Amino acid sequence: MADLGTTIHPTAIVDPLASIGAGTTIGPYSIVGPNVILGKNNRIGAHVILEGRTFIGDENTIYQFASVGAAPQDLKYQGEPSELRIGSRNIVREYVTLQPGTLGGGMVTSIGDQNLFMANTHVGHDSHVGNRCVIANGAALAGHVTVDDGVIIGGLSGIHQFVKLGKVAMIGAGAMVAQDIPPYCMAQGDRASIQGLNRVGLERNGGSREDLSVLREVYRLIFTPSGSEAKSKVFKDRVAQARGVVGDNERGLAFVMFIEGSQRGIAPHHRSVSSAE
């Protein structure tokens, strides 16, 4: 079903059961399956495949040869009616693969708004990507990965299954991330270690001087304590001490709560770095 104002190229194959919102354009040789719902003013390029139970919001741009909604790469998947949900104003470049959830992971893969997926990137089953993230060329998210708002993932990086990337984290190119990265931190390497605070990212996302000051102290207490502090406290005790200094600072509290809630463990601090920036 296509709303008035849609433009569908004669060579495109659009199932009559698909829902296509007003103002949407579908390019040559693209294929849209019966369970796809497209919102308004989307731009679907040539040779794009949209299939599965896929729900796409408004004003997204999907470039040629992208595969959106194909069956997940999980041998346990048995055709269950899982979903892929995509928000609005995302940019999906060439050869990107976005895949739905599975029975073992909640049945939904979700992507928020205003994200950029550069060419050849992959979002695996049951992953959740927030808003305003940038995933650079060739980077891949395994299944069950959580990426919070404002994260930047460098090219050719790999994010291990069940890893969580906190808000405004920045992952260096080529990183292999096997453990959680807290909010506002930078990480790189194989296996990726935390390099310091993402001060520029914090500022670009509205962080104040007070936020930076609190995060510096929290970071120091947890990752770079002085000699006596390091000897006298195990990691969980340092986290508890950091909680005591954040007060009501929202970003500092989010940092500590992220670490407290980590199931996979926090990536190690890169010990050659002497400061938290």
Short description:
The chain has 277 residues and is α/β, with parallel strands linked by helices. The chain has helices spanning 199-204, 209-223, 227-232, 235-246, 250-260, and strands at 7-8, 13-14, 19-20, 25-26, 31-32, 37-38, 43-44, 49-50, 53-56, 61-62, 67-68, 83-86, 91-92, 97-98, 108-111, 116-117, 122-123, 128-129, 134-135, 140-141, 146-147, 152-153, 158-159, 164-165, 170-171, 176-177, 185-188, 193-197. An eleven-stranded mixed β-sheet has the order 1-4-7-10-13-16-19-22-25-27-28.
Q: Which stretches are poorly predicted, pLDDT < 50 over at least 5 residues?
A: 273-277
CATH topology of the largest domain: UDP N-Acetylglucosamine Acyltransferase, domain 1
Distance between the termini: 53 Å
Compute the average pLDDT: 94
Structural class: alpha/beta
- Bin the helical content: 10-25%
Please report the total strand number as a whole number.
28
CATH class of the largest domain: Mainly Beta
> Please, what is the CATH homologous superfamily of the largest domain?
Hexapeptide repeat proteins
- The rough form would be described as elongated
Largest sheet: 11 strands, mixed
CATH architecture of the largest domain: 3 Solenoid
As for the number of domains, it is 2
**Order of neighbouring strands in the sheet with most strands:** 1-4-7-10-13-16-19-22-25-27-28
Number of helices in the DSSP assignment:
5
Q: What is the gyration radius calculated from CA atoms?
A: 21 Å
Strand content: 15-25%
